[in-house]
Design a protein that fits this description.
9 helices, alpha/beta, globular
């Protein structure tokens, strides 16, 4: 029987690549999204992957959304917490709304989603949770105190939950991507993009498919002994100790 994978922010960018990779590997996939109906419907039409709309920053909405996914596809075996936003500003110009919005979507969502799948995973003695952090959660980034703090928080959450669930056959890991060639990054001015690439030793941006393949590996049987780990995928731009 095919396993069920739920990907938050799963209709665009890295999330879309992850959703497609899991489908191609034989999983039943549900792609969550938060607001862009046109992009979600296009993704659904092109891939055949069902899409489910809810706000991952809302605890009750996550409960209802996950219930819908389980009703449509079955119990969730793999949760990919990928949804995230940025609200960049230097701290002396950052508003409480900038801070709260990023914390809510990027960090609260990790708790919201994981809390609503963990009981079922524990009951079945199996589960895979993969949390998408960022290079900027490891090294920090000017103008992103909110985003860097949220993405760093994901690492701590993952390490703690990995210890709680290890004996239940559940692994919990982090992927920390570097700069990935997605729609969001393509909007960056060319000169800025060139300066970013100049700091990446491999000499190029990462590909969304490369992150998707790492997620697929962590969800598979070959990674059963890997839990609480952070997989740094950034072309040696930042080498975490």
């Amino acid at each position: 029987m095919s396993k069920v994978a739920l990907v938050t922010g799963g209709t665009r960018g890295i999330g879309a690549a992850i959703s497609i990779a899991f489908k191609n590997a034989g999983y039943k996939v549900a792609a969550n999204y938060g607001g862009n109906d046109a992009a979600a419907e296009k993704f659904k039409a092109e891939t055949g992957i069902p899409v489910f709309k809810w706000d991952v920053g809302d605890f009750a909405a996550c409960a209802a959304g996950i219930k819908d996914v389980v009703g449509a596809l079955g119990p969730i075996d793999v949760l990919i917490n990928n949804a995230g936003i940025t609200r960049d500003a230097m701290l002396h110009k950052m508003t409480p709304e900038h801070w709260r919005d990023v914390m809510r979507v990027d960090l609260d969502s990790i708790f919201n989603m994981s809390r609503h799948v963990i009981d079922s995973m524990r009951e079945r003695n199996f589960g895979r949770i993969v949390n998408i952090s960022s290079i900027n959660g490891q090294k920090g980034q000017m103008g992103q105190t909110n985003y860097s703090a949220a993405k760093a928080g994901i690492v701590g959450f993952t390490k703690a939950l990995a210890q709680e669930t290890a004996k239940k056959g559940i692994t919990v890991n982090v992927i920390a991507p570097g700069y990935i060639d997605t729609e969001m990054l393509q909007a960056v001015p060319e000169k800025v993009l060139e300066s970013i690439i100049a700091t990446i030793p491999v000499g190029r941006l990462g590909k969304a498919d490369e992150i998707a393949k790492m997620a697929l590996f962590l969800a598979g049987d070959d990674a059963a002994f890997i839990t609480g780990a952070t997989m740094t995928v950034n072309g040696a731009q930042y080498i975490a100790g």
